[in-house]
Backbone:
């Protein structure tokens, strides 16, 4: 398996199965090679407007993040948005 | 009668209203409780003897029509940490107290022939015998109190563990439906209340004068801007994240980030965690005819709360917050919402803080008292606490006490208070906050998770120790201000991103107080509050060596990132030594 894509919220509908541990997270295991997160999003037909945050191997990343074999990519939709900047930033 | 200080003397069972000293008039919430504790409580006193005091203060704008502003601070010297404590809660009780014209209640002295109940209404203040509602669970007690005093009253109280004068006893407040589910949970203030001989406070704000507005136009203008920001922002708007999933929406994000402590802080990620996520819970609440969304107090725009029930809408518990679900769930290796719900019910009923209770059970699991994942065993431990067995009393005193009793060295606590749901080895800024806040390990004191995990662009690397002293300090100062306003901390999701919202928040404060604060004043106001708190702790005997994380977190790596806590002691010391 090249990449495990973990889909939360309404994105789980894009997956045909859920993970065995919880039964609630949409899972797509992709054999294809993707250079960057944005290529993966294009493949899944997701655009920036729909996405809240992406976590690759436990790290918050932007869409330009390079992907490698074995990566765990979690994608959260806007409905699970938890983004904000503190006001002294 | 407005802007009054209500002093309650439990030695003589007398009360008197005093004018609030000029130096305290522009304070509210945490600013008020911490100033009074610093001024009136001897720092070296025993928290459960007569020299300690218990202070209740609604926020600056609480009791007005300002959105999401029904917060109240409770302060005193903590029996859990031995230091100053401010514990914050969202409840209609806060609004009722403010509308009654009471800016602060100070409970002092001790009544030996326990227990009394204090009634406050627009006619005045009186005591009643609390015996009929003592030594029973809080769900039953609240039902009985509402039958006695009417459904319209607001109630705060302490439970069976408070009566034991155990260090993990919170002060409970009612939600709008009257359930004993809103907690000033942290730091053992329930034991401080019970040790005064005070079991409940019952408020009735019918005919109350309300809160004065120094500049009504500015207040209206400000609250309108703030309401607009709250209803626009993805996190706080109706149908937004908090409204749809509650605080438990954090489970999946923090688990994916490898920072959700599990099996007593042994690992930061486990795929079973999604079984107790906000998404899973919201769906189950719908299935079982519970309530979601729900407001913890009237007039909240965000409405992140809920009422968890048994199937069919039976036996309502109240809200299952992220921190509670985590502590009673994944931190104990329990991944079942029904079990978590029943453990949370037991905490509410007994008067236990859920964070400390879950951390204590996990320490008991590590100490071999039961296996990780044993939900039935965990519920049996709650029964031991209820019965007041020796084992139960040890557990009712929190994670550190239980760790000592069971020979466990991996106790995730700072200043005697257990850590919440963010492992500091995977979110280093939170470790800095846990170590340095005067409160003991407390996530709300300086929530660096925001820039470290959640901010756009991820400009703060959660695994890096760099820059975390400044980050934690500034967030701690800003938080001390928000905790004083009476606004829910979650309003900052919107005000941080929408400048007009922040402008409105400050204008609304100015509209109530007649001040001319600007955004530049926020950190300075917060700084002064924390300086008082730190000074209290210093006089209570705390040194910089108390501003440290437990040794095991420095020595042990946390999977999946395999990181230890490597923020240096010099960095920790520079948080407030600048």
Residues:
């Amino acid at each position: 398996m090249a990449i495990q894509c973990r889909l939360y919220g309404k994105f789980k509908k894009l997956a045909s199965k859920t993970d065995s541990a919880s039964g609630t997270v949409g899972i797509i295991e992709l054999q294809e090679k993707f250079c960057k997160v944005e290529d993966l999003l294009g493949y899944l037909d997701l655009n920036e407007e729909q996405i809240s945050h992406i976590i690759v191997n436990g790290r918050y990343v932007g869409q330009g993040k390079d992907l490698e074999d074995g990566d765990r990519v979690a994608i959260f939709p806007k409905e699970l948005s938890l983004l904000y900047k503190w006001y002294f930033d | 009668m407005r802007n009054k200080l209500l002093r309650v003397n439990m030695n003589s069972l007398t009360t008197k209203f005093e004018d609030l000293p000029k130096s305290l008039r522009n304070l509210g919430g945490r600013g008020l409780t911490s100033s009074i504790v610093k001024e009136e409580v001897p720092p070296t006193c025993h928290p459960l003897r007569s020299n300690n005091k218990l202070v209740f203060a609604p926020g600056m704008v609480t009791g007005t029509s300002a959105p999401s502003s029904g917060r109240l601070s409770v302060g005193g010297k903590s029996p859990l940490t031995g230091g100053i404590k401010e514990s914050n809660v969202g409840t209609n009780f806060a609004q009722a107290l403010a509308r009654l014209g009471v800016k602060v209640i100070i409970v002092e002295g001790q009544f030996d022939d326990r227990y009394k109940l204090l009634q406050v209404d627009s006619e005045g203040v009186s005591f009643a015998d609390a015996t009929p509602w003592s030594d029973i669970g809080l769900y039953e007690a609240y039902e009985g109190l509402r039958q006695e005093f009417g459904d319209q009253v607001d109630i705060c109280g302490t439970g069976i563990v408070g009566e034991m004068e155990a260090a993990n006893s919170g002060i409970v407040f009612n939600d709008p439906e009257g359930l004993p589910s809103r907690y000033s949970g942290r730091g053992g203030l329930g034991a401080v209340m019970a040790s005064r001989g005070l079991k409940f406070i019952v408020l009735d704000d019918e005919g109350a004068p309300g809160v004065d507005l120094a500049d009504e136009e500015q207040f209206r203008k400000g609250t309108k801007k703030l309401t607009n920001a709250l209803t626009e922002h993805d996190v706080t708007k109706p149908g937004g994240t908090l409204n749809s999933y509650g605080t438990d929406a954090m489970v999946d994000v923090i688990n994916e980030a490898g920072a959700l402590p599990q099996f007593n802080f042994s690992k930061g990620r486990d795929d079973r965690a999604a079984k107790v996520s906000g998404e899973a819970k919201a769906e189950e609440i719908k299935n079982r005819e519970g309530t979601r969304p729900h407001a913890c107090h009237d007039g909240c725009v965000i409405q992140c709360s809920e009422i968890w029930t048994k199937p069919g809408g039976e036996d309502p518990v109240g809200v299952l917050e992220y921190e509670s679900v985590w502590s009673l769930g994944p931190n104990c290796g329990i991944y079942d919402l029904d079990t978590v719900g029943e453990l949370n019910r037991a905490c509410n009923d007994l008067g236990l803080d859920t964070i400390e209770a879950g951390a204590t059970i996990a320490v008991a699991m590590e100490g071999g008292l039961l296996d990780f994942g044993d939900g039935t065993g965990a519920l049996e431990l709650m029964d031991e606490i209820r019965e007041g067995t020796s084992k139960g009393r040890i557990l009712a005193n929190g994670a550190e006490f239980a760790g000592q009793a069971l020979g466990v060295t991996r106790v995730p606590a700072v200043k005697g208070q257990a850590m919440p749901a963010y492992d500091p080895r995977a979110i280093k800024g939170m470790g800095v906050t846990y170590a340095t806040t005067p409160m003991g390990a407390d996530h709300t004191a300086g929530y660096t998770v925001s820039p470290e995990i959640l901010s756009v662009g991820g400009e703060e690397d959660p695994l890096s120790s760099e820059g975390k002293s400044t980050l934690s300090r500034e967030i701690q100062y800003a938080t001390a201000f928000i905790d004083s306003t009476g606004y829910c901390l979650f309003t900052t999701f919107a005000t941080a991103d929408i400048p007009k919202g922040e402008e409105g928040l400050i204008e609304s404060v100015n509209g109530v107080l007649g001040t001319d604060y600007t955004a530049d004043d926020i950190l300075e106001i917060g700084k002064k509050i924390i300086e008082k708190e730190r000074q209290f702790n210093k006089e209570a005997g705390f040194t910089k060596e108390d501003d440290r994380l437990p040794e095991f977190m420095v020595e042990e790596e946390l999977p999946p990132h395999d990181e230890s806590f490597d923020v240096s002691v010099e960095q920790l010391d520079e948080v407030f030594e600048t």
User: Anything to note?
Assistant: The mean pLDDT of chain A is 87.
